[in-house]
Design a protein that fits this description.
mainly alpha, 3 helices, 77 residues, 82% helix
């Protein structure tokens, strides 16, 4: 059985990656980005730091792109 921190970086990476893949559905992408950010922060000192950090970066990028998408569709549209 792996330690909890060893699984958190996988959840952060998966959350960030799926948040980027679902940019066109902002509600889902924002939830996945939030999951990626939370688990990326929790697993920041994990054994595989690159995976936690890249998941955190992808989640933040997805959140920024979601906010831009919402601004363009809701305010400008």
């Amino acid at each position: 059985m792996q330690k909890r921190q060893d699984v958190d970086h996988l959840i952060a990476f998966g959350g960030g990656l799926t948040a980027l893949c679902t940019i066109i559905v902002p509600a889902l992408s924002m939830v996945l980005a939030a999951v990626g950010i939370v688990f990326g922060i929790v697993a920041y000192n994990a054994t595989q730091k690159w995976m936690a950090r890249s998941g955190l970066a992808m989640a933040i990028l997805a959140l920024i792109l979601d906010l831009i998408y919402w601004y363009v569709v809701m305010v400008k549209g």
